[in-house]
Amino acid sequence: MRLTLLDRYLSKRLLFTLAKVVVALLLIVIVVDLLATRRRQIEKYDVPWRMILEYYATFAPTVLFKYQAAAVGMLLSGLIVFGRAAQDNEITAALAGGVSLRRLVRTPLLLAMLLTVGTFFAVDTLGAAAYRRFERLDNEYFRGFSPGARQGVSWTNLSGDWTAHIRQFNRRALTGEGVIIHSVTPELVQDIQARRIYWDETRGKWIIEDGRWFAFDRAAQLERTTRITQIPAPFAEPPDRLFALDESPDGKSAAALRRDLRLAGGLGMPVQAQWVDYHAKFAQPALLFIMLLLAVPFALRVRRGGVAISFGLSIAIGLAYILLFFIATGLGHLQQLPPPVAAWLPSALFLGLGAYLFRKTPT
After folding, report:
1. Residue 146 in 3-state DSSP?
2. Do 108 and 208 belong to one domain?
3. How many domains is the chain partitioned into structurally?
4. Distances, alpha carbon 134 to alpha carbons 55, 59, 234, 317, in Å
5. Exposure winner among 123, 166, 266, 333, fewest CB in 10 A?
C-alpha cells in the first residue's frame, strides 16, 4: 500500500499525540498512587528509592493495559488529531478533493491495528514478566510480606479421592507443617495426620513424615492405625498442577494460562473465572483499534469543543467501557455468560457502535 503525504501527516500526528497523552496519563496515575497510597507504606517499611523506581517501572504495563490507559490515550489522541483537522478544515479540503473519509482514516486505523497486535505480544511476554516482578516487589517491600512466608493451603479432588489441608506451607521451598489428609469412599474412611510434608524432586513424590494413618473399613467394621515415620503421600499430583491457578493470570502468557487451566480442570478445580481472563487477554488489546474507530465520528461531531471536550468525552467513553467490561466479566465469573462472550462482549459492542457512527458520519 502506497502512503500518501496525507497518510504520513495524520499518522505522525497520531503517534506523536498518542505518545504524549499516554505518558501524561501514566504519570498522573503514578503520582496519585505514590501520594495517596504508597507514601505511608514507603515510610512504614523504609523502602529504598531504587525499589520504588523499579516498582513503578513494573507497574506501568498494568496501568497502560489492565487499567486501559493506552486505550483511553488512543481515544483522546484520535479526538484531538481528527478534531483539530476538522477544525482547521483539513478534512473538508480532503473530502472536497475527492478523498473519501474511509480512505482518509485508512492508514491511521491500520496503524492502530498494528499497535493492537504489538500490544498483545508485548503484554503476553514483557508485560507478564513485569507483572510477576511487580507482585513480588509489592509483597516484599510495600506489604511487609515475604514471598517465602508460610500460609495455609488446601487441595481437593486429588487422585484416590484424597483431600489435603496443610496449616503452614512454604511455596518457595515446597514444604509444609500441620498436615491433614483424608479420603472417604464407600469402602474406606481414611485420615492421615502428619507433622511435615515436602516435595522430593528426585523421587517426584510428596513425602509425609512423623504422623499416623487411621483407616476404617466400613464393611468389616474394623479400624486400624499405622505409625508413619516417612512415606510417600497417597496422591500423585506434582506442584505445577496443584498450584496451577495460584499465580495471577496477568503474570502468565496466554499459552501458559491455557496449559494451567487444562491442568486445573483435570483436577476438577473450578476454572470458569480463569477462562474469562484467558479470553480477555485477546479481547482487551483490540480496544486500541476500537477506540480510534470511535474517535473519528465523535471528533467530527464535536470539532469545536477543543481539548477539554475531547478529554471529557474520552473519560466518559473509557468509564463506560470499563463498567461494561466489569459487568460482562462478572457475569462470566458467575457462569451466567460463556467465557468468550463475557470477554469479547464489551469490545464487540463498542466496535459495533464505532462502525455505526462512522457509517453515519456526514461527509
Report:
1. coil
2. no
3. 2
4. 6, 6, 37, 29
5. 266
Give the pLDDT score at 149: 53
- Helix spans in the chain (H): 5-33, 39-45, 49-61, 69-87, 90-96, 101-122, 128-137, 239-242, 254-266, 272-283, 287-301, 306-333, 339-360
In this structure, are 89 and 178 located in the same domain? no
pLDDT at 172: 80
* Side-chain half-sphere CA neighbours of 117 within 13 A: 5
Spatial CB neighbours of 181, under 8 Å, sequence gap ≥ 6? 162, 163, 164, 165, 191, 192, 194, 208, 233, 234, 235
pLDDT at position 32 is 92
> Tell me, what's the pLDDT at 264?
80
Q: Do both 115 and 167 map to the same domain?
A: no
Identify whether residues 212 and 114 lie together within a single domain: no
CA count, 13 A, side-chain hemisphere, 51: 15
* Assigned domain for 264 exists: no
- Conformation bin of residue 174: beta by default, left when phi > 0, alpha when psi is -120 to 50: left
| Stated pTM of the model | 0.79
In this structure, are 94 and 33 located in the same domain? yes
C-alpha cell at 199: 516435595
Cβ within 8 Å of residue 78, ≥6 positions away? 14, 108, 291, 292, 294, 295, 296, 299
Tell the residue number behind the cell numbers 496501568, with chain if given: 63
**Is 92 inside any structural domain?**
yes
User: Do 85 and 104 touch, CB atoms closer than 8 A?
Assistant: no
Residue 165 and residue 139 in one domain: no
Residue span of the structural domain in which 282 resides: 5-144+276-360
Query: Within this chain, do residues 299 and 331 fall inside the same structural domain, yes or no?
Result: yes
Spatial separation of the C-alpha atoms in residues 284 and 296, rounded to whole Å: 20
Per-10-residue mean pLDDT of the chain, 363 residues long, equals: 80 94 94 89 87 94 90 90 85 84 90 94 93 89 61 82 90 90 89 95 93 88 90 89 82 92 78 90 92 87 61 78 89 91 93 88 71
